[in-house]
Amino acid sequence: MSVRWLVVGIGDITTKRVLPAILDEPRSTLCGIVTRTPAKAERYRVPAWTSFDQALHEAAPDAVYIATPVSMHAPQTIAALHAGKHVLCEKPVALDYAQAVTMRDAQIATGQLLGIAYYRRTYPKLLRARQLLAEGAIGRPVFAEINCHSWTPPEDRGWLIDPAMSGGGPLYDIGSHRIDVLNFLFGKPARVCGQVSNVVHQLAVEDSATVMIEYECGVRGVVDVRWHSRVDRDDFRIIGTEGDMVLTPLNSPRLQHPGGEESWPTHRNLHFPCVANFVDAVEGLSTVAAPIEEAVVTDWVTEQVLNSHFPR
């Protein structure tokens, strides 16, 4: 079986990771690209369209990878699902929780697969951490802190600082990944509060966000994301009643716990396991790593933060 992919959007992540992953995945075929600039698609030697609706009809894909700005996720995903296509969509799910729910409802109505590209769920290190937590390696987990600090996005990703296109700043961009990591490990959030602010950059979106999540299992999680640090940070630590688990940097193979230190390297292309998992799901061999019914929870958390924060 070969899964025919239509890729929508040809920006930074698409060219560096998504398209190489589809081209390398042996059960996948790239059947077309949707882009405002067809010349960008020429090197892939597949048909290119500027019209999403036309491409859905003419490319005859089995699956659609949506890598457009967040503002387009909901309408494009819903259109693809109702056209009988499976969808793998970039994160975050949508501009807000209400939009995310419309995507979930469309998936339920059509019965097609809908996954969100929270690719860290496929990290061997994160899967191993979840196993160790279940085995009681640090006793009962009670606190988790996960931080990601960097500078503002490069100019070629300028849409990220336009709230009409992105929804928000680091809370949406890098924060959504880390909120999803906590949800993946600890389950359903019960209560959320937080603050967004502009400390260094006066942008139309926040340049920093701090989120506190109380999980039903009793874990308290804190996510801190910033776009005003010249020093990159990618920290993650989980504290339990019997010890700590250190996953810093999150994007490294290193996993330290009371039983020792382990190394769990990722695939050289971080999106490849995400694409391969989705193809497995299409073939009925697995479930989607980040199904829409779980991914919408991150949008719910984000909305609670925006509803609860206080201005500087």
- Name of the CATH class of the largest domain: Alpha Beta
In total, the number of strands is 14
Structural class: alpha/beta
Average pLDDT for all residues: 96
Please describe the biggest sheet, giving its number of strands, its sense, and whether it closes into a barrel.
6 strands, parallel
Q: How do the strands line up in the largest sheet? A: 3-2-1-4-5-6
Architecture per CATH nomenclature, i.e. the level-2 architecture of the largest domain: 2-Layer Sandwich
What shape does the CA trace take?
A: globular
> What oligomeric state do the depicted chains represent?
single chain
Find the CATH topology of the largest domain. Dihydrodipicolinate Reductase, domain 2
The share of residues in extended strands comes to 25-35%
What is the radius of gyration?
19 Å
* Domains, number: 2
Write down the secondary-structure element order: EHEEHEHEHEHEHHHEEEEEEEHH
What is the count of DSSP helices, taking H or I runs of 4+ residues? Answer: 10
Report helical residue fraction.
25-40%
Determine the N-to-C terminus distance: 55 Å
